[in-house]
Structure formats: C-alpha cells, structure tokens
Amino acid sequence: MSRRRESDNRLVFTCVWCMLASVIILSLWEPVTRAVASGIGKASIGTVQDEGGALAQEPAINFIGAGVTCVDDAGNTRSNCTIPGGGGTNYQTMQDEGGALTQRAVMDFAGAGVTCVDSGGSKSLCTIPGGGATQYQTMQDEGGALTQRAIMDFAGAGVTCVDSGGTKSLCTIPGGGAATLDVARMTRAAVQTIATAGVAVKILFDTVDFDVGASITADAVTNNRFDINTNGKYLVTGSWRAENVTSGQWLGSFIYVNGASVRIGQQASSSSTQDPYAEVTKILDLTAGDRVELYVAHSSVGTRNTIASVDSYPYMHIILIN
Questions:
Q1: CATH number for the domain including 268?
Q2: Residue 309: inside a domain, yes or no?
Q3: Cα–Cα distance for residue pair 251/151, rounded to 1 Å
Q4: Could you read off the pLDDT of 195-209 as tens digits, one per residue?
Q5: Which residues contact 304 (CB under 8 A, 6 or more apart)?
Q6: What phi and psi values does residue 34 have, to the nearest 5 degrees?
Q7: Residue 177, CA distances (Å) to 145, 171, 267, 306 in order
Q8: What is the rounded distance in angstroms from the CA atom of residue 291 to the CA atom of residue 302?
Q9: Confidence band (pLDDT; 50, 70, 90) for 221?
Q10: Is 232 inside a domain boundary?
Q11: Coil, helix or strand at residue 206
C-alpha cells in the first residue's frame, strides 16, 4: 500500500512539472511567433518621397489621379503602375519680354484672335496672331529713329496699302525711294546742210543720247522730234554751230512747239570770220501730245553746214522739272 502511494505521488509531481515547463515554453515562444506573424503580409517599403520629402512608411501605396493604371506582373513578382505625364506638371520657364513668370500648372492664353486646339497628339496648338515681337525693329525719319509702336500708319496723298496674301502688307508711296528724272536728248552726228539764208530748217536728229522716264519720247527715226506724254513744266535747250560765218552774219536756233516758234536764240559773228554757235533755252508749260522740235537758220550768202564734231553736234534736250 505504501509503495502504491509513493508511486502515485511521483506521477503527480511529474505532471505538475510538465505543466510548468509548458507554461514556460509558451511564454518564451509567444514573442517569436508574434514577430513572425507581423512580418508575413505586412512589409513596409523602403522610402517614398513627395518632391524630395520623405513620407511615412506604410505597407501599401495607393496611386491616385486620372489615367493612373496598375497591373499585376506575376512573372517578376511586382505590380506595374503607369502615371500619364509623369514628372513635374509645371512648364520650365516662361518669360514676358525677358522677365520670368511664376511657374504654374496651367497656362492661359488671352488676347484678341488667340486660338488653341487639341492637336490630337500630346500637345495643344495655340496660334497667336502676329507671334513674336509685335513692334517693327527700327524706323527712321531722315536718319532720326522713331519710337517703336505696334501700328504704323502711312499718311499722305496717294499712299496705298494692300494685303499681299502672304505674311505682309504692300504699301506704295508715290515717289518713294530715289527720285527719277525724266530727261531726253538727241544729237545729229552727220553733217546737215542749211541751204537758204534766213529760212529756218528743222534739224534731222540721228542719235538718241538718252531717254529716261515716261514723260518724254525722243524720236530720231521717224519724226525727229520730242513727244510730250505728261503735263508739266519742261526746261528745253537747243544749239547748233556752223563754220566760216563771215563778219556781221548771224546764226539762229529756234524752239518749235506744235509747228510754231516759241523761242529764238541768235548769235552774230564778230568782225572776223568765225565758227559761232547759237543756243536757245526756255522753260515751257507743255501738255501731253505736244511736239517739240529744233529749227536753225543763218544769214550768210550761200549754204552753211552743221559741224560733225562731238563737241559741236547740233543737239536738243528736254527735262521735266515739275
């Protein structure tokens, strides 16, 4: 009986010891299992920043914004997120006549005629009429610079401006640029005989030295005359020279308009035989359609000839002066 009681006491002690050991093991294992459990399915990312500033670490990242998409990439054990237009949303630099403006996410184009449309790609297309500098670069008045303005007004009689259909307007200023002088001159190189004394004979010009401008037509082929095409005041000069004019005799040069003499220039020989010349000049008020010719005469007995030397050719010139 005593042996059985002793055996029972040993069994009870053993059970108590086992229970105590279990309590101790459980109390030591609980922190380990808790740490393991917390590490499964809840891992924090390393570092996330917003424009350089670190955010608090969290086990999840939520992407927000229009157009953001995320898909599972199981093969690479990751998720792929697409953020449209990633990066900064502000334009880099915008200036107003050299001065930097504050950066903003929205740019508003204002002003008459400004239009913006979606180009269908990654941009909007804005058209600003007269884009670039709105003022002309330099405008001078007789060498002195004028103040720059956005509008230039052409004033004055006869000024006309029309749209050229391209990128410019075409303005016509009468007489703009270098002035054109309407002038013509004819000469006779070949000898011409002036036969009868006291009778005016028309010079038959054979050379047009020059004929500039549309106001005068020099005709040395058909009519040997100047035809006037524009109303105005003209300076007309004519001259001829003859050889062996005896003492007391004279030479005469005549300006004819429409077949009638309007001016005579006369030169008399001195006491000895000479080669004189006679020149005539006058300012005439002529109209379109007038005809101007050079006639010459002499008082010598017999004939007199023109001189075939370049410094003595008979000539007439006409200049439009107003």
A1: 2.60.120.40
A2: yes
A3: 64
A4: 999 999 999 999 999
A5: 193, 194, 242, 243, 244, 245, 251, 298
A6: -65, -40
A7: 18, 13, 43, 42
A8: 30
A9: very high
A10: yes
A11: coil
